[in-house]
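=== Discrete structure encoding ===
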Amino acid sequence: MRCAIAHYHELALKGRNRDYFEQCLIQNIRTALKDLGVRQVQNLHSRIRIDLPLEANADVVRDRLVRVCGIANFSLGRVIPLQIANPDLAALAEVAVEEITATSCTTFRVTAKRADKRLALTSMDIERTIGATLCERTGKTVNLKSPDVTIYIELLSREVYCAAEKIEGPGGMPVGVSGKIACLISGGIDSPVAAYRMIKRGCHASFVHFSGRPLVSRASEDKVRELVQTLTAYQYASRLYVIPFGEIQREIVLNTPPPFRVVLYRRMMLRIAQELAREERCWGLVTGDSLGQVASQTPENLTVVEEAAEIPIFRPLIGMDKREIIDEAKRIRTYETSIEPDQDCCKLFTPPHPS
């Protein structure tokens, strides 16, 4: 039977709430794969088994699971029955041959793990036996230090899993276990990465975008909708609020000195976002601030801006530099959208030398 085996790390450290975290992860996996005909998702000891129908496209399954927060890594392979007293290594070797034949490798290694230590054979015994069969049947050679492919074998009490790949997941916590937050999102590079980092820690994000309308076009709104769509792949459902901010900016320009305008824009944004957060029952706001990146992100200005809000403000990028943020944006697939030109309200009426 084809299946995927997903592992998690951080959830295994939870105490009394571990079952809750695991059930949230299982539900999120079901949601991510529901249109692929996946029906059986089973919680095993420190791993989750996902039975895959024959018609399920492996590339699509990989693309979905790599975005399920809480998964540390996963493998797509096959499962066969296992008898602890009399393990059928010949049947396991046949599965391993099928898995490695589907690859284009010339060298390999076998890595076996026993979850049930009652099994008479050691992990090394299994690795040697399966490795010898693979060499004999396929003509491929063993390379323990730098193989083209690693055959992963996991032996449980009643089943054994075999796969020729292990794919890194996002890690973190299952979406939903940390409540709801409201993310201020622009069309830039930083704010989508900040939102992703909070989603990865188990938060479900609502999004608030401040548009320069009616003084500019809808270009930034369309761009932000695309960014939110990309981020929704990590949390399966999202709500986006678009706030026309142009007239508010005009009033600030008409009534305040130029050096203070950007700080006042941001204070007003937090006040509005806070009311939406309360309406959505969010417990905090998230911004894409990075310390010292621009004039409005100095310690003094961040402090003044934060005083406008009464609920917690989270800044996941505060200690990251621009290169680190760009690298993460590329990894989560928001970068190409973020660098498209638009008319951002933050650039509207911006003085040449803000305070």
Q: What stands out?
A: The first strand starts at residue 2 and ends at 7. The radius of gyration is 25 Å.
